[in-house]
Design brief:
The complex is a heterodimer of chains A (423) and B (780). In chain A, 42% of the residues lie in helices and 18% in strands. Chain A is α+β, with helices and mostly antiparallel strands and 423 residues long. In chain A, the strands form three sheets. Chain A has a six-stranded mixed β-sheet with strand order 1-2-8-3-7-6, with helices on both faces. In chain A, a hairpin with a 4-residue loop joins strand 12 (308-313) and strand 13 (318-325). In chain A, 48% of the residues are buried. Chain B has 780 residues and is of the alpha/beta class. A six-stranded parallel β-sheet of chain B has the order 1-4-3-2-5-6, with helices on both faces. A six-stranded antiparallel β-sheet of chain B has the order 9-14-11-12-13-10. A six-stranded mixed β-sheet of chain B has the order 15-16-20-17-19-18, sandwiched between helices. In chain B, helix 7 (189-198) packs antiparallel against helix 8 and helix 22 (687-702) runs antiparallel to helix 24. The chains are: A alpha+beta (423), B alpha/beta (780). At the A-B interface, helix 2, helix 4, helix 10 and helix 12 of A face helix 12, strand 19, helix 14, helix 20 and helix 22 of B.
């Protein structure tokens, strides 16, 4: 694996995988759905506020290209036989292409799309309809409804309370000026992390680096806009909530907010990655498939493929979600909540189990190296956090149970917990 | 059966009739199917290449539909008229001998082969007499399948046009198979012979759809190889067989039900033998040392290592042979092709070696005919067996064991393949742990325990508590699955298409059966299932001899009483015949309307033209640039999402959509318009080439993921095609837009299913009675 740094700040990481046919090129932009308030790079005294969902909306507009009636850009990628797609997350947006032939041309098209966009030609109304249609569809999912309500109860000011796509109302407020402001502030090469993974040869890598030089002049050192974290109260707005939806499946979702992670906590880089891994491992030990809690829920018929748990950690917000679909959601929610508290409070965490979960995570990491797209995406996220993919694997050795428990004991704070029952 | 010529006695058990030259003589009786009518494929079928297979599988498929006995009518020698003027360049040996041909025909599902003795007398038979007196009267053929260039009768006067005309007159169905092209060339025995003479094994394999092989009994040699620890199995090559260039090859040797890696020399052995006419095939079989004299072996040729040469001494020769064996082993480690290592009483084991990946995977597939109760029991058993073993009797204990194996994955899935059901147990983990352990080897042991050694009560039945726990969770999972209306609509549309046919059996059988099966019944069914199901084991990843032995020997404890199912592609699963088109509107408690459309008209699942289906699907809906997605892009207020998939075993295409209530008819019209664009070729420029490019790239990409490679090859075997990625690519490259237009023109909508929101049904369909959609959930 090699990383090249352009003078502008843009980085290119190359992970060759000889004897593989596919090639992946991913560009990570450090702008995500939570970045709804930022200081304008051109006018630092001005604070720009954009509606929730702007990051995702911009992603749509960039890929729809000119005259969306024809969806020209999508067809241009298709004509090259490559798969092109993008996604938006809280803290970043990723654009990628995946294919075998005509890959150089595909990369060129991708870079020009991001660096020289045609937002002005984008039919905003049409894109609005598309996104609103996606949001409408989600309303028929019980777990989504629960999640949407929970996030609003858990966070008052932070934009993570909104779905990455925004809301039906907020989408209607996005203008071309908003999109242009975001693009100007964050879609600068300085912030780009590019990853190439797959069956590349040296000549291709060289030509790609030359392509970067063509697109990004050496004197391009535009700074990025400065994200402004909102002030977030410590607790949640309510401990329990319910949604009546008799036409949907019964479900429950619990949320635990970490008040210690906020605008002044400055968690980033390797530290952030390690804590993410550690937090998820701890959840595996508390609610994962080898736990008594899981067995109890399984015997009650309260666990199925829609049972989920996850730990989310960004620079300025952090929370845990646990939820599922079952016949008695109130009871399941109560059992899950009490067991989590009981386990953490009683110090009933098994060191051997924790080490075993690390073993599982290491196995999963090794296996992920077999998939070009996964390798590429993981490497891109690591680069965004200024670490290398292979540093990620060494993170496991730096994780220990007692530190992890200390970081995660926010789950004991009932004022920072909340739940939603849908039935 | 009329046997005239004892030369065919060595052909063993394959069902064949040798037809005498004077077949038109009225004294010749007893030929043809004993009951009913027959379907007959006509041709010489030397090599039985993929073009022949397309023809033969079509025959078997159609015969299954019609209830005919599938048969082949062929000649005992290469007919003179096929030689043409330049006979020397066109023909100088057969690709395969008759025995091998019969074996291949048998495996394709041909139940009877008529071998016509061909001499000057028979060559005088007129085309009309051949059709009327032999085909119609004696062979009772009511279905005839031929290639596009088939000729017959005296001086090859008969052709396809005559055959078709005759068929119409006599009420005989005649199917003419279009030629198959691969990498720009017509697939033909002539091309294959040329490639074989040139030693281009890759091309030969691609066009045959399998490796070129030579079979025969092992004969004694001069035993010199044994003296240096390299005993060889020697086979004489029949004089009429075309052989590849003399030299040393990487090969595989099948002995009985097992296959071994090997190295083979074809030639005259100049170092030790001066007789240039004495051509022998000598094979050193790796990891095998038994007396094979008189035993039949089959040697498949994979890769050419070097030409034959004469060495100064036997010692130098021996030294070179050791190097050849080492080179062969290294080459085989990186040869990523699926091959059968064992076939033991109907349980087949396949391996796909690869040294590129960090993990290995095993799939154990149990297939049996679908029926609501048995399918339910098998699906339920899959659930129970994958949740625990006797050694790890709870789900938690089993999961902990999987965690120890570096987070091994273990799951079970239910697949519906026409009127068959397949339960697939899948397990995967890293092939080497960070502690240098071999977790995958242990995982294979665990899979074997799971299937063969579940927790049992003292009375020998499955533990009741486990059965009840899994029943609850299985039904709960099912309710979650069916609550997703995408799944509901897909199932309901399929129900409406299949009616009472077993093809419509749900992949988990009857929910009522799952709810009521007792542990006693389940135990009995489990034991019977292991004895009778078609069992195929597939393993991919890094291989060593230990691992191969482990997977081959997994089933030693399973007793066998001769009742194991043998499944033949084209016959099983059986072809599906749709009924009359129907439209059904129902209501359910949902927010957006759903549409499910089923179109018949795709080629049989055995066809090599499956690539055309993939291109058509892509043009329709599989990508953002596709025709149906244009509807979404341009009318998001009417339709949220459209997708398309195929049901290969039903030969059907399925389209589903999420639609704004009230816009259902508008969307249906839009779908019809988009489909028509493909039929008439009036879609935008570049759509066909983009789709072809995407499908090609998707095929190439399959080799980048081990499980996808395995899944691709497994599906090839199930469908009977058994081609690799290169072979599939070579076929895809020949596809023309006209072929896609023609394919689209054969699509016929069989089912239109519309599911509307309950609260809107009365408003949208005033005056009509709209029934509620049947409840498919289980009562818990």
């Amino acid at each position: 694996m090699h990383t090249y740094q352009h003078i502008s700040g843009l980085s290119v990481t190359v992970i060759p995988k000889p004897r593989f046919s596919r090639k992946f090129a991913g560009v990570v932009v450090p702008y995500g759905s939570v970045h709804t308030q930022f200081r304008d790079v051109k006018h630092p005294h001005e604070i720009i506020e954009v509606p929730p969902g702007t990051a995702h909306f911009l992603e749509h507009c960039l890929f729809s290209g000119k005259t969306t009636q024809s969806g020209e850009l999508i067809r241009r990628f298709a004509a090259l036989g490559v798969e092109a797609d993008a996604y938006t997350d809280y803290g970043h947006t990723m654009f990628y292409v995946l294919g075998t032939d005509h890959f150089g041309e595909a990369c060129k098209l991708l870079l020009s799309t991001l660096i020289e966009p045609t937002i002005g030609d984008c039919d905003l109304d049409l894109q609005r309809e598309v996104v609103q249609s996606e949001l409408n569809y989600l309303q028929s999912d019980s777990q989504y409804l629960g999640y949407e309500r929970l996030m609003k109860n858990m966070f008052k000011n932070h934009s993570c309370r909104y779905n990455v796509n925004g809301t039906l109302d907020s989408i209607g407020l996005i203008t071309k000026d908003h999109l242009a402001a975001v693009h100007r502030n964050f879609y600068t090469p300085r912030g780009f992390s590019i990853v190439l993974a797959g069956g590349f040869d040296e000549p291709f890598v060289e030509s790609f680096l030359e392509l970067i030089n063509d697109f990004v002049p050496n004197n391009n050192r535009e700074p990025l806009g400065e994200y402004i974290s909102p002030v977030e109260p410590r607790g949640t707005s309510r401990f329990t909530d319910s949604i009546v939806a008799p036409h949907l499946q019964d479900s429950y979702i619990l949320g635990f907010k970490d008040p210690k992670v906020n605008g002044s906590s400055h968690i980033s880089g390797a530290n952030l990655m390690i804590r993410r891994i550690a937090g998820q491992l701890l959840l595996d030990v508390i609610v994962g498939k080898t736990t008594f809690l899981y067995e109890e829920l399984y015997n009650l018929g309260a666990v199925n493929e829609r049972f989920h748990y996850s730990y989310h950690l960004e620079n300025d917000c952090s929370y845990v979600l646990v939820g599922g679909v079952c016949q008695e959601p109130d009871r399941a929610a109560e059992v899950v909540y009490n067991r989590i508290i009981d386990t953490l409070r009683g110090g009933k965490l098994d060191e051997d189990q924790f080490q075993m979960k690390k073993r599982v995570a290491m196995g999963s990491f090794i296996r992920s190296m077999d998939n070009i797209m996964t390798v590429g995406m993981n490497a891109a996220i690591c680069r965004l956090n200024n670490i290398d993919l292979f540093d990620y694997s060494s993170a496991f050795t730096r994780i220990d149970l007692s530190d992890t428990i200390e970081h995660m004991n926010f789950m004991l704070d009932s004022e920072a917990a909340t739940r939603v029952i849908v039935n | 059966m009329t046997t005239i010529n004892r030369d065919f006695d060595h052909l063993g058990d394959y069902s064949f009739d040798v037809l005498p030259c004077n077949i038109l003589n009225e004294d010749v009786k007893g030929v043809g199917p004993q009951e009913g009518f027959g379907g007959v494929a006509l041709g010489f079928f030397d090599g039985v290449h993929i073009g022949h297979k397309e023809l033969l599988r079509t025959l078997v498929y159609m015969c299954t539909l019609r209830g005919y006995e599938p048969a082949v009518f062929t000649m005992d020698r290469y007919p003179k008229f096929l030689r043409g003027e330049n006979s020397e360049s066109l023909f100088d040996g057969l690709i395969q001998d008759t025995r091998w041909k019969l074996e291949v025909l048998f495996e394709l599902g041909i139940e009877r082969t008529y071998i016509q003795q061909f001499d000057d007398a028979f060559s005088q038979v007129t085309p009309e007499d051949f059709l009327n007196k032999i085909l119609y009267d004696k062979l009772k053929a009511r279905l005839v399948v031929v290639g596009h260039d088939f000729r017959f009768g005296h001086k090859a006067a008969g052709d396809v046009a005559l055959l078709e005309k005759w068929g119409k007159e006599r009420g005989v169905e005649v199917i003419v198979i279009d030629p198959l092209f691969s990498n720009g060339e017509l697939v033909s025995s002539t091309i294959i012979r040329k490639a074989l003479k040139e030693g281009d094994l890759q091309k030969v394999t691609r066009l045959l759809g399998t490796e070129y092989s030579i079979s025969g009994p092992v004969v004694p040699g001069n035993a010199q190889g044994r003296t240096v620890g390299m005993p060889t199995a020697n086979v004489r090559i029949p004089a009429n067989l075309l052989v590849p260039p003399y030299g040393v090859y990487v090969t595989r040797t099948r002995i009985g039900g097992k296959t071994y890696n090997s190295v083979t020399n074809i030639g005259t052995r100049p170092t030790v033998n001066q007789d240039e006419s004495d051509v022998l095939m000598e094979t050193v079989i790796f990891d095998y040392d038994c007396n094979l004299y008189g035993i039949d072996i089959n040697v498949s040729f994979l890769h050419f290592l070097r030409p034959e040469r004469s060495f100064n001494s036997f010692l130098t020769l021996t030294n070179q042979m050791s190097k050849d064996m080492q080179t062969a082993r290294t080459w085989l480690d990186s040869y990523e092709q699926l091959w059968k290592i064992a076939d033991q009483e109907g349980i087949t084991t396949w391996v796909l070696p690869s040294d590129r990946f960090h993990s290995n995977v095993i799939n154990v597939c149990l297939s049996s005919p679908a029926d609501p109760c048995n399918s339910a029991a098998h699906a339920f058993l899959g659930r129970i067996l994958s949740s625990c073993t006797r050694e790890y009797p709870t789900k938690t204990a089993l999961t902990k064991r999987l965690d120890e194996l570096f987070g091994a994955e273990l799951d079970v899935s239910n697949r519906r393949e026409g009127d068959w059901q397949t339960i697939i147990f899948r397990a995967s983990t890293v092939n080497r742990g960070m502690d240098d352990s071999k977790p995958f080897h242990s995982l294979v042991d665990l899979v074997a325990q799971m299937l063969l050694d579940p927790p049992l009560e003292e009375d020998g039945f499955l533990v009741e508590e486990i059965v009840e726990r899994e029943r609850l969770n299985f039904l709960s999972d099912w309710n979650t699955y069916i609550s997703d209306y995408k799944n509901y609509v897909s199932l309901r549309t399929r129900d409406l298409l299949c009616g009472d046919q077993l093809h419509g059996t749900c992949m988990i059988g009857s929910i009522d059966c799952i709810a009521s099966l007792s542990s006693t019944e389940l135990t009995r069914i489990w034991r019977n299932w292991l004895k009778t199901a078609q069992i195929r084991v597939f393993v991919a990843g890094r291989m060593d001899t230990d691992l191969k032995n482990k997977v081959s020997n997994m089933w030693q404890e399973v007793s066998y009483n001769g009742g194991r199912i043998r499944r033949l592609a084209g016959r099983e699963p059986s072809p599906f015949l749709p009924g009359q088109p129907i439209k059904v509107i129902e209501k359910a408690p949902l927010e957006m309307s759903r549409i499910g459309l089923m179109y018949s008209g795709l080629p049989p699942y055995t066809s090599y033209r499956v690539g055309e289906i993939d291109v058509l699907s892509n043009m329709l809906a599989a990508a953002a640039h596709s025709l149906l997605n244009d509807i979404v892009r341009l009318h998001p207020e009417a339709v949220h999402n459209i997708s398309c998939r195929t049901f290969p075993f039903l030969s059907c295409l399925y389209i589903d959509a999420i639609v704004t209530p009230g816009k259902e008819d508008e969307v249906l019209r839009a779908v019809d318009r988009q489909l028509k664009k493909i039929v008439t070729g009036s879609y935008r420029e570049g759509l066909f080439t983009s789709s072809l490019e995407i499908i090609k790239n998707q095929l190439i990409s399959i080799s980048d993921e081990m499980e996808n490679m395995l899944s691709f090859r497994r599906n090839q075997i199930t469908s009977g095609r058994n081609i690799d990625i290169d072979g599939a690519l070579a076929l895809i490259r020949q596809i023309t837009p006209e072929q896609i237009h023609e394919l689209a023109s054969r699509l016929k909508r069989q089912v239109t299913y519309v599911l509307v929101p309950e609260k809107e049904a009365d408003t949208l369909y005033k005056g009509q009675i709209i029934n509620s959609a049947p409840n498919k959930k289980a009562k818990l």
